[in-house]
What does this fold into?
Amino acid sequence: MNKMNFQLIYILPNLFTAASAFIGVISIIAASKGEFEKAAWLILLSLIFDGLDGRIARLTHTTSKFGMEFDSLADIVAFGAAPAMLLYFCCGNEFGRFGSLVSAIFVVFGAIRLARFNVMAPSSEPSVFIGVPIPTAAVFIAVWILMYQKYPMLKDFSLLLLIGALICAFLMVSNIRYPSFKKIELKKMYVIKILIILIITFSLLYLYPIEGITVFITIYILYGIFRALFYVLLRKKRKNIV
It folds into this structure.
């Protein structure tokens, strides 16, 4: 029997992954109690831990097959089950079977998205995602529910939130490309302009955090859809010309 030397540094990234899953479960419990705002913020907190685990693993050179699989299982809890249950308890239960169906499809398609990502990861482009990442879809649900809690008049349009979640579910398993922002090459002439834009952006987020995140995440979701439609129309136009 081979002896295995365990080092604390190898456990550290997995602790952040475990924290992400743990917070996801707490979010589900909060949603079941009607604490929707708390549940939504917990999903956003899970996102922070999920982002840290991979970066820590790469910085400490402790990436492993176990860590990748564990991360995917944690993601299906924190960004699949947690937002789906938040959606259902907040407004989905008002629409009977349709509400249940949307929540279930979100989880199932999220699991498919994660499985596909794990299979395609070695050959995928670092600058794009194929389909909406499951954390992005989860944030979309979380921030819109925060908006619903802050602005009661939006609750009359809860059906639109369900439809938006359903669209996100299908986008997760689509072939539509989305920018990943993992590898961005900037020309020197644009650095100052981008810096100014970022300062303005973060200033607005400081003043209106919920509204700002909601706007940005919604634009990101719509960007992929309109970009795909643009290329489809462009191809048809070129075929007609030929």
